[in-house]
Design goal:
The complex is a heterodimer of chains A (113) and B (115). With 113 residues, chain A is mainly beta. Chain A has strands at 5-7, 10-13, 19-24, 31-37, 44-50, 53-57, 64-68, 74-78, 87-94, 103-104, 108-112. By secondary structure, chain B is mostly beta strands. The chains are: A mainly beta (113), B mainly beta (115).
Chain lengths: 113, 115
């Protein structure tokens, strides 16, 4: 039973560029959440997708956008990259309405030069 | 808004000794509390959760946590630490908002277990 998988594992971009990160949820899960973890900090909630719609959003600018596909996989897009966007981006999946915990992938390490 | 606080940036303990990693919470309503562990260059691994029921929650790898409503605390414990327990530990609370599982994390506590 595959867990949450994320790609790529590492990415280097320059300021002003755009990036797309990908996530496949754990089998049986229908909800995908994205978190940003800056160095030395706890994960910060970006947004959550369910039934292909954004359901909740954290305190992140519109440069951060996402998408969920019919197979429940998800993408995180970040436009006009800033140096401060350098972080580990974590995807987590869960089952809507379940008390079971979110399962996390190993993340994508994004470095902005 | 829901929040958790981890007052210690780092906890040092000798192998074989008991360990405690502290967490306090601030919520409206009943708390849904979690502990996750993060090893270098990895994502978060779930250790245990408290929703309702017994105040002592048992989880993975011999960890347990004690929920204390009067002190609004949810401390992580283990009777005998292992060197392999050295990692970054996060306490989190589920934001009950719309019913979706948004997690609010603490700043993390680094646990160092010496041989």
């Amino acid at each position: 039973d595959a867990g949450v998988t994320q790609s790529p594992t590492h990415l280097i971009k320059t300021r002003g560029q755009q990036v797309t990160l990908r996530c496949s949820p754990k089998s049986g899960h229908d909800t995908v959440s994205w978190y940003q973890q800056a160095l030395g900090q706890g994960p910060q909630f970006i947004f959550q997708y369910y039934e292909e719609e954004e359901r909740q959003r954290g305190n992140f600018p519109d440069r951060f956008s996402g998408h969920q596909f019919p197979n429940y996989s998800s993408e995180l897009n970040v436009n006009a990259l800033l140096l401060g966007d350098s972080a580990l981006y974590l995807c987590a999946s869960s089952l809507r309405g379940s008390a079971q915990p979110q399962h996390f992938g190993d993340g994508t390490r994004l470095s902005i030069l | 808004a829901q929040s958790v606080a981890q007052p210690e940036d780092q906890v040092n303990v000798a192998e074989g000794n008991p360990l405690t990693v502290k967490c306090t919470y601030s919520v409206s309503g009943n708390p849904y509390l979690f502990w996750y562990v993060q090893y270098p260059n990895r994502g978060l691994q779930f250790l245990l959760k408290y929703i309702t029921g017994d105040n002592l929650v048992k989880g993975s790898y011999g960890f347990e946590a004690e929920f204390n409503k009067s002190q609004t605390s949810f401390h992580l414990k283990k009777p005998s630490a292992l060197v392999s327990d050295s990692a970054l530990y996060f306490c989190a609370v589920r934001d009950i908002g719309t019913g979706f599982q948004k997690l609010v994390f603490g700043t993390g506590t680094r646990l160092l277990v010496s041989p």
